């Protein structure tokens, strides 16, 4: 925290403000911009922490000898980007949207050493940081791991510890524990129409790990990877850590929609979430699926199908996998246990076409020396003995009713101000706002109430951004969801008066 009052410290940061006629090159930068930069730096570095009240624009203009207009313009920009929020009657505050963001690496940490990050490392650090998981109402993507059947798991795991077979203490060769790969092959072929044998299944340490393996083995430096826009930050991060070039591709209600110019780029990798697009929930239509598979087959592209939450459909029939339609052997199917069991288990799986299965298994072993064999063995039993299916039924029932309560409570409060996504699936719903709305400011406003919703516009790489809020319903206890939903609805209604 800065020991000086904000205005005094800002005055020192900005230096004397020269009259317009005598301004040097530095001061040719508009004054609102200098003020905006100073405040933004202070917020990102934590000097101005979340919840800090800023002086009014009138006070600051007087103290800094700036025009009120200059200060208002700087504040407006910070509000638009979600760094601060104005609450009518209370003042202007630093939001906690930026809490999960990384403060700049202090120069002193690098002093005396050559700058060590590669160009790739710099890119990775410069892109939006991963969102830290806070356990607060409506955090998207969080599953209710309090429902996990700990006792059953313990019993299954204890047996393996008692038997203490030496193979479970070793690295996991051959793509992972064989009975687990068999159980997964059975499960995905029955539940998701994936065409697969256990030889094609590999156990990985998470979806990002699967993506990294694909990029490492299938793409050359400089190749293009298509990613959905909006899309999953985790996939972008993983691909961004390799030397492929990311190309954002638009998504509409029928899923991925490449333009003619996109089609010319001849991607090597195409990352998609066809069963339930992340984060809008769109389901890829059959005609788009076929067009994508034909394109990939013709041009030697690999499609990475991330089927991260297909277990959670609350009405209608499940949507089959893209891999099940693939006659070109160009789809790599990715699944995870982060959503179905708990995120910290860090076990996921991928299925690869038979022709590259051995190469993938050997690379997985050489690059990672995979482990967690006790956990893999326990999970194999958990699935084979029917506990996984029982747990999924229970979660579907819990999440389905939470989703319904959230929708029913929100709808009458927000009325025509926003549209709630129809897909009864996944772990979050999308509250779609008009294009003119400032979803970042609305999310910041909700955060001041302790409600963590994420602005849809921040999931884009490209310029054209739809607006909305992602509200996770899986983790909010059933008896509390209506109360929180009312607070969220009221916050949206209030916010739309200022930020609509
Ligand atoms: C689209 C998508 N894919 C995959 C995952 C899971 O990733 P992991 O298996 O690395 O935990 C998530 C988690 O939020 C996700 O949103």
Which key features would you list for this structure?
single chain, 500 residues, alpha/beta, Arc Repressor Mutant, subunit A, Aspartate Aminotransferase, domain 2, Aspartate Aminotransferase, domain 1, four-stranded antiparallel β-sheet, 17 helices, 42% helix, globular, binds pyridoxal-5'-phosphate
Describe the structure in your own words.
An eight-stranded mixed sheet has the order 4-11-10-9-8-5-6-7, sandwiched between helices. The protein has a four-stranded antiparallel sheet with strand order 12-13-15-14. It is built from 17 helices and 15 strands. Residues 98-108 have low confidence and may be disordered. The chain is α/β, with parallel strands linked by helices. The protein has three domains: 6-94, Arc Repressor Mutant, subunit A; 151-385, 3-Layer(aba) Sandwich (Aspartate Aminotransferase, domain 2), CATH 3.40.640; 390-499, Alpha-Beta Complex (Aspartate Aminotransferase, domain 1), CATH 3.90.1150.10. Bound molecules: pyridoxal-5'-phosphate (PLP). Pyridoxal-5'-phosphate (PLP) is lined by residues 141, 206-208, 232, 234, 273, 278, 306, 308, 336, 338, 343, 348.
Look at the structure and give the mean pLDDT: 88
Q: How many alpha or pi helices?
A: 17
* Portion in helices: 40-55%
Tell how many strands the DSSP assignment holds: 15
First-to-last CA distance: 33 Å
CATH architecture of the largest domain: 3-Layer(aba) Sandwich
| CATH-assigned fold name of the largest domain | Aspartate Aminotransferase, domain 2
